[in-house]
Task: structure prediction
Amino acid sequence: MPAYLFELELPFITEEIAAIIPAHREHISVLLVEGKIISYSVSQTRNMIWCVLDADSEQEAMESILLFPLYPHFTDIVCHPLLFHSNLPVSFPDVSLN
Result:
């Protein structure tokens, strides 16, 4: 399945935006668990979000972005279709038989 990197720009965080952040984080957590979001990063200055989505098409990926609670506040959205996206495999701690 193709992957799409989105650069999402936010304005200065106001009280109105801050009030939406808990719902936004919950929405992102659900998409991560479902495997629709492959990775999600926020800049330290909180004005940029980078998000890699797994979708069948750019349109499907954009439709997911439209459902983000913070979507009405994004000041710019840039989509980059990716040739591939690699992650480290999830590892579990070694089992100790002591």
User: Anything to note?
Assistant: The chain has one domain: 3-82. The mean pLDDT is 91. Residues 3-82 form a domain with the Alpha-Beta Plaits fold (CATH 3.30.70.1060).
